[in-house]
Amino acid sequence: MTVPPVAAHVGADSDSGTLSARLVAHLTAAGETIAAAESLTAGLVAATVADTPGASLVLRGAVVAYAADLKVELLGVPGSLVDEAGTVDPRVARAMAEGVRDRLGATWGVSTTGVAGPGPAEGKPAGTVHVAVAGPAGTVTRALRLNGGRPQVRAAATEAALTLALDVMTGNAKPLRPPESHGVR
Q: What pLDDT is attached to residue 131?
């Protein structure tokens, strides 16, 4: 399922720490785990979760795959997809989330890919971001159009990824397509 783009700066007035605390509390209560596959956020999603007390019970780990070849080699993103669409694409975000979930043995996988700026990349303008969450029932992606400089885009992408994860986990965003793998977690 692809959710319509967000047009505003997502992180302007929100508290990622509170969001992360809610995420960690939900995962702990459910006995579930999470892993992150990150490109433009370069570890900020995992670091935000890790800053939360109790994170060691739920955070399996993270893969920072900034380079296209690492997305393919470490996360299982199809090379043909990267060749066709580049790395800033909702299908790449989906494959990253599913790949990290599978490879790190987590209940949930969350991913970020996009263009932090200041200029365009792969023909896409700065602020173009895709986040995805893969779980037991499927995968949800969200396209974002974020404003600001590199730090603001990366922070907003982090917050958007955590928000989507919590929304999917609590039933506020329904997956449309089943996940690629169905391992018991």
A: 98
Rounded to 5 degrees, what angle do the CA atoms 65, 141, 41 make?
35
Are the beta carbons of 92 and 113 closer than 8 angstroms?
Answer: yes
DSSP letters for 107-131: SEEEEEEE--SSS-BTTB-TTEEEE
The separation between CA 185 and the C-alpha centre of its own chain, rounded to angstroms, equals 19
Which DSSP category does 55 fall into? G
Domain boundaries, the chain: 2-169
pTM of the model as a whole:
0.87
**Joined tokens for residue 51:** 């800053």
Q: What is the pLDDT of residues 123-154, one digit of tens each?
A: 999 999 999 999 999 999 999 999 999 999 99
Asked whether the predicted pLDDT for residue 5 surpasses 60, the reply is no
Identify whether 118 is preceded by a cis peptide bond (ω within 30 of 0): yes
C-beta separation of 146 from 9 below 8 A: yes
Fold classified for 2-169: Maf protein (3.90.950)
